[in-house]
Amino acid sequence: MNDLKNRIDYEMSSFYVTDILGKPLSDFEINDILEYERMDKKIHSGEIAEFEEYSYLSIKSAFFKNNSQIPDFFTLDPCGITLFISKRLRDDIVNSNISGSEIRPTNKIITT
C-alpha cells in the first residue's frame, strides 16, 4: 500500500484522535510530518494524559501538496482500513461493470 504521509500539507490538513475502537475523541493540530509521527507514538502509548493507551491519531481531511502524484489506489490509515481510489480508477471500474464492492464519494482528500 502507498504511504502518502510525506505528500500531505500538514498545516492545511485536519486531524483527530480516536479511541481503540475508532470513536472520535478530540481534534488535534499537527504542523509537519515529524510532529505527526512523534505525536502518533505518544498518543498510542498513552503518554498524553487525556488519551488512553492505544488511542490513535487519524486524518480527518488531507490536503496534498501542489503537484503531488497521488496513486490510483491508496490508504491514509496505518492499517489500511479505509481505501481510496482515484476518479480515473473509479470511472474504469464503473465503466467495466465490476460488481461486489461499493464506491462512495469522500471529502477526506483534497488536492490543489
Description of the molecule:
With 112 residues, the protein is an alpha+beta fold. The protein is 20% helix and 25% strand. The chain contains two helices and six strands, in the order ββαβββαβ. Strands 2-1-3-6 form a four-stranded mixed beta sheet. It is globular, with a radius of gyration of 15 Å. The mean pLDDT is 87.
SSE diagram, text form:
Blueprint lengths: L13 E5 L5 E5 L4 H13 L10 E9 L8 E3 L7 E3 L1 H9 L13 E3 L1
Brief summary:
The protein has about 110 residues and is of the alpha+beta class. It contains 2 helices and 6 strands.
Query: Strand count, sense and closure of the main sheet?
Result: 4 strands, mixed
The arrangement of helices and strands along the chain is EEHEEEHE
| Cα-to-Cα separation, first versus last residue | 23 Å
Per DSSP E runs of 2 or more residues, the count of β-strands stands at 6
Figure out the total of helices. Answer: 2
Helix and strand content put the structural class at alpha+beta
**Count of discrete structural domains:** 1
Fraction of residues in H or I helices = 10-25%
Low-confidence stretches: none
Strand content: 25-35%
Average pLDDT number = 87
Widest sheet: strand order?
A: 2-1-3-6
Give me the Rg, rounded: 15 Å
What spatial form do the alpha-carbon principal axes imply? globular
